[in-house]
Design goal:
Helices cover 0% and strands 53% of the residues. It has 187 residues and is mainly beta. It folds into three domains: 2-60, Roll (SH3 type barrels), CATH 2.30.30; 66-123, Nucleic acid-binding proteins (OB fold (Dihydrolipoamide Acetyltransferase, E2P), Beta Barrel); 128-185, Nucleic acid-binding proteins (OB fold (Dihydrolipoamide Acetyltransferase, E2P)), CATH 2.40.50.
Length: 187
């Protein structure tokens, strides 16, 4: 059990028999009445978002989750297949859990897998990742409107809007939460 005042961003709570990850937390201390935390949570099983107000003195059940580092191997059409880095066991994560995950998984890279009740429910990807531009339109000289962008496709199939100077085979850093271009990586 965890007190409402101790809930923070990243906490995992058990609400309606499902694990919810706290993505935003706002502490409110009104002039009258007791303080409370307004939390926005994401269901780790189906992605549903829930906003709830919890008094700081109240207690909420926290979910017992584990993470294990696993190396991404391949996708078989129904599951993403990983190998546990310690025991070398195969761990499968259903594609249905997160359709967009396929654009962020790179063969051979290690990702933390979230386990709840002995079943994988999520794959944690880094907030920023490096991708190689696989397809890019050529920009026309003189097409220099301030802030002009163009779409490119990365080596994993992710489409990102980038500045006009980005070319095919360039390495780019992308924010995985917003799918936005951050910067070009030299070298």
């Amino acid at each position: 059990m965890i007190r409402g005042g101790d809930i923070g961003k990243g906490s995992v709570l058990l609400i309606k028999n499902a694990p919810y990850l706290v993505v935003e937390r706002e502490f409110v201390n009104p002039g009258k009445g007791s303080a409370f935390a307004r939390v926005k949570m994401k269901n780790l099983k189906d992605g549903a978002v829930l906003t709830q107000t919890i008094k700081t003195a109240d207690t909420v059940e926290d979910a017992e989750i584990d993470t294990q580092d696993c190396q991404y191997q391949y996708s078989d059409g129904e599951n993403h297949v990983f190998m546990d880095s310690v025991s070398f066991d195969t761990v499968t994560v259903p594609l249905a859990l997160n359709e967009n995950l396929k654009h962020y998984l790179k063969e051979g890279d290690v990702y933390p897998i979230v386990i709840w009740q002995d079943a994988p429910i999520d794959v944690k990807i880094p907030q920023k990742m490096i991708f190689i531009v696989a397809e890019s339109e050529h920009s026309i000289r003189g097409d220099t409107v301030s802030g002009a962008t163009k779409p490119v496709v990365t080596d994993t199939g992710l489409t990102v809007r980038v500045p006009l100077f980005i070319k095919q085979d360039d390495k780019i850093l992308v924010n995985t939460e917003t799918n936005e271009y951050v910067e070009r990586i030299n070298g």
